[in-house]
Structure formats: C-alpha cells, structure tokens
Amino acid sequence: RPRVLSGMQPSAASLHLGNYLGALVNWVRTQDQYDAFFFVPDMHAITVPQDPAELREHTRRTAAQFIAGGIDVERSTLFVQSQVPEHAQLAWVLTCITGFGEASRMTQFKDKSSKGGLETAGVGLFTYPMLMAADILMYQPQGVPVGDDQRQHVELARDLANRFNHRFGETFVVPEAFIPESGARIYDLQNPTRKMSKSSESPAGLINILDEPKVIAKRIKSAVTDTDTVIAYDREGKPGVSNLLDILSAVTGRPVDQLVADYEGKMYGHLKVDVADAVVSALQPVRERTLELLDDPAELDRLLATGAAKARDVASETLETVYRNVGFLQLG
Ligand code: ATP
Ligand code: MG
C-alpha cells in the first residue's frame, strides 16, 4: 500500500466542524487504500508561546478525537510528534541544507512574524518548514494530503529531498502534494465568507466536535442567512444558506442540488432544524467516544506509546541512512 502522512496541530480543546469534515473524515477514508501515518505535531505547537498544562491537555484531546472520528490505531499509525525524537534529529540535518533566503521566502513565516514583528518572532517559527519537511520525508510517503496553505511547505520538502539525494545519494522518496479530493470547506456561521477557524474572534460561528448538542443546535439556528426567503445555492449571493447546504450535504452524503430541490417552498427555519439534527447526530458518537477515551488517560497514553513505537520503526531506519550518508560515525 502506498504511504501517506497527515497531522493537525493541538491548538484548541476541540476540533471544529471544518477540521472534521474538511480533514478528519478524509483521513479516515484514506486508511483503506493507504498505509496511513497520522500525528499530532506538538513540536510545531511550541513555535508560538504555549501553556504547558494546556498543551498536554490539547494533545491528548486532539489524539482522542482522531481515534473517536475513526482513525484505526491497528491499521494506521497514530503518534505524537515529540515522542518520536528522530523528527528533531532529521530536522537539524535538513536545516543545514536549507538556504537562508529559501527559508525567508516561506509566506507563513512572513505572515506570522509580521504580526508581532521580527524582533519577537521565535527562530522556531522560521525553522518550522524544515521540521515539517522532516515530518514528511521521515516516512518516505508517496503523497502528502494538504490544504492549499501548506503547498509551499511541501514544495520545500520536495526540494530538500531532491537536494539531499543529489548530494548524498538516493535517500528520500520525493513526495507529491495532493489537495484532498472533495474535502468540504466549511465557513463561519456568523461570518460565512470567512472559513470556520479555531482562531476566529467569536465562538458563535464555530461548531466544535466536543460541544454539547444543545449548544450546536443553538449555534446553527442562529446562523447568519440573508433577507431573502428562497433556499438556493449561491456562494457569492447567499453565503450563509450555501454554507448550511454544504454542511448538510457533507454530513448526509446527499448532493447539494438534490437538497435544494427538496427544500423548494420551505423556509430557512426548516433547513436549520434539519442541519442541526444531522450535525448533532453525526457528531454525537464522536463526542461520546472522545469523552470515554479522555476518561482513561493512562489507556490513551498507552495507545499513543504503541503508535510512537510503530512510527519509530520506520523513523529510525530513515535516520540511520541519513546519518550514514551525511558522514556521521555509526554507533558500534
Ligand atoms: P488555525 O486557525 O489555527 O489555522 P484551523 O481551524 O484553520 O486553525 P488547522 O489546524 O490550520 O485548523 O487545520 C487542520 C486541518 O483542518 C487542515 O487539514 C485544514 O485544511 C482543515 N480545515 C481547517 N479549517 C477548515 C474549514 N473551515 N473547512 C475545511 N477544512 C478546514
Ligand atoms: Mg489553518
């Protein structure tokens, strides 16, 4: 089976519906065709200031939601990045073959560092793409499913793989970035031209996997629509209604045009009730399973330790080749 690798930062207490429908649901599907590696990039999370207790909690929660959402720890490999020390070791080697100018051109660094200014931005924010290249190249995957915003980082990983292979001999598979098939893009319920995001100003536009069903239903019922009354799909003219239709379509698996036909002559209120019911029943089992897993952190930590050991089987082999090829002495 070809190999793929995906991760999601432990930056909040709960994943939101966009993370779930746009990423996790697709990850779950890839497990049939691929030898899939999933990880929680906690080392990336410390490139901006973090609270230690919160990071620990968010890391467990993120991993628990992966499992509850359908990541099968038997078939796939699920691990926490910091528990596989080879990531940091490979990142250093890759950092040493990255040009300073090349790293300076990464747009995410420019965006994030321009907010607080270069004086306060950590060097980790600058070397983040080299760690991400290590995350990827370590597992020799043929493909990396990523969002559009990560394309440039995967491009760098490809460049570094080619450069390393050229200088030190064939070592890495050069992976392709693929923008996932039909990952639904979900927008903020209060501001439906902005994507739903953990970093949105107000929680009112967010649907979190771990929210109580009552809260989810209430947020959907208060979603912004428009002053028209016709249920139609029009991303430009009717972003709020279109977002609700997209959500309902993603959750039920029914095409949008079929939904639109069904709702002919009905009111926004009808649509909202149905969306709320469908989302609540889709998320309910994920929420319950997550809470169960979090109830037994020792067992969860054990599952993650097993995942880290599986990941290290592959990672240590790659690192050994890399160390030998760059000229480090082998341990006796
Ligand atoms: P942040 O605001 O911190 O960037 P985020 O909510 O955008 O957080 P990420 O951790 O950046 O979440 O993304 C994790 C995964 O979820 C990625 O694969 C990303 O493409 C996907 N994703 C995030 N938001 C959405 C959304 N609104 N719709 C669809 N997919 C999304
Ligand atoms: Mg994001």
From TrEMBL:
**Signal peptide positions (record):** none
What is the predominant subcellular site recorded for this chain?
A: cytoplasm
| UniProt subcellular location | Cytoplasm
Among Pfam families, the record links this protein to: tRNA-synt_1b
| Keyword Ligase attributed | yes
The entry lists its GO molecular-function terms as: ligase activity
| Keyword terms of this UniProt record | Aminoacyl-tRNA synthetase, ATP-binding, Cytoplasm, Ligase, Nucleotide-binding, Protein biosynthesis
Instruction: Read off the SUPFAM superfamilies from this record.
Output: Nucleotidylyl transferase
- Flavoprotein keyword on record: no
Query: What does the record give as the reaction this protein catalyses?
Result: tRNA(Trp) + L-tryptophan + ATP = L-tryptophyl-tRNA(Trp) + AMP + diphosphate + H(+)
Enzyme Commission code: 6.1.1.2
* Sequence motif: 'KMSKS' region, positions: 195-199
**Can you tell which superkingdom this protein's organism belongs to?**
Bacteria
| InterPro entries membership | aa-tRNA-synth_I_CS (IPR001412), aa-tRNA-synth_Ic (IPR002305), Rossmann-like_a/b/a_fold (IPR014729), Trp-tRNA-ligase (IPR002306), Trp-tRNA-ligase_bac-type (IPR024109), Trp-tRNA_synthetase (IPR050203)
Give binding positions for ATP: 9-11, 18-19, 147-149, 186, 195-199
Q: What class of enzyme is it?
A: ligase
Function (record text): Catalyzes the attachment of tryptophan to tRNA(Trp).
Family membership: Belongs to the class-I aminoacyl-tRNA synthetase family.
Instruction: Please name the NCBIfam families in this protein's record.
Output: trpS
- Note the PANTHER family from the entry: TRYPTOPHAN--TRNA LIGASE, MITOCHONDRIAL
Mind telling me what this protein is named? Tryptophan--tRNA ligase
Q: Tell me the organism.
A: Zhihengliuella alba
Q: Gene symbol? A: trpS
